[in-house]
Design brief:
The chain is an alpha+beta fold and 197 residues long. The chain has 2 domains: 4-102, Jelly Rolls (Sandwich), CATH 2.60.120.10; 129-196, Arc Repressor Mutant, subunit A. 38% of the residues lie in helices and 25% in strands. It has 6 helices and 10 strands. It has helices spanning 4-9, 92-101, 103-127, 132-144, 161-168, 172-184, and strands spanning 13-17, 22-24, 32-38, 40-46, 52-59, 63-64, 78-81, 85-91, 189-191, 194-196. The strands form 3 sheets. The protein has a 4-stranded antiparallel sheet with strand order 1-8-3-6. The chain has a 4-stranded antiparallel sheet with strand order 2-7-4-5. The protein has a two-stranded antiparallel sheet with strand order 9-10. The radius of gyration is 18 Å and the shape is globular.
Length: 197
């Protein structure tokens, strides 16, 4: 998202994290801009019954949690590594200095935040549906919208069945059953244990 050379110019640091490491926790104070150089992270919460709800998954080149730097609040979610990661972090004050000196970066950030807000609207609408097929199609349509290839079955869903369940608020068994029905209806294909949409 933000060029690395620019981040390092404003005193950013790079750190290696291992799979399962926590970058920040719910209730913590947002003090850094984070950008993934390598790996994947998830933003999640846990419900009262202990069930995980994944708010989003980010991968190489994406930033996460930065919207909270603009307001005085605590993190309402956790950021956890799904695999080994290299993450660039920039202190909050340096982040604002960068924004002030490079308004084009601010414009790009606003665009990315708007895309995430759009995703939240789609998923809120999606969660109001009781139909698991509708929930899964909404998620896959959103994910596919970022890819060049739009043909049927050209998009490979980059998540496990468990992650799809956590992103849609369904249980994994429902995702598996629904996937089988969607294959029969010719909506998706399953190849090498991956959903092709």
């Amino acid at each position: 998202m933000i060029e690395e050379r620019l981040l390092y110019k404003f005193r950013a640091e790079s750190k290696l994290y291992m799979k399962g490491d926590v970058i920040f926790e719910e209730g913590g104070t947002p003090n850094f801009y984070y950008q993934l150089k390598e790996g994947k992270i998830k933003l999640n919460n846990f419900k009262e019954d202990g069930k995980e709800f994944i708010q989003n998954i980010f991968s190489e080149g994406q930033s996460f949690g930065e919207s909270l730097l603009f307001i005085e609040v605590q993190y309402p979610m956790n950021a956890i590594c799904l695999e080994d990661c290299q993450i660039i972090s920039l202190p909050k004050t340096s982040f604002f200095d960068l924004m002030n000196e490079h308004p084009e970066v601010s414009f790009g950030l606003n665009k990315a935040l708007s895309q995430r807000l759009y995703y939240k609207y789609i998923m809120l609408q999606n969660l109001s549906s009781t139909d698991p097929t509708t929930r899964m199609i909404s998620l896959m349509n959103y994910l596919k919208s970022f890819h060049v290839k739009k043909e049927k079955y050209a998009f490979v869903v980059p998540f496990t069945r468990q992650q799809v369940a956590n992103l849609t608020g369904l249980c994994v068994e429902t995702v598996i059953r629904t996937s089988k029905k969607m294959v029969k209806k010719d909506i998706i294909r399953i190849k090498d244990r991956k959903i092709h949409y």
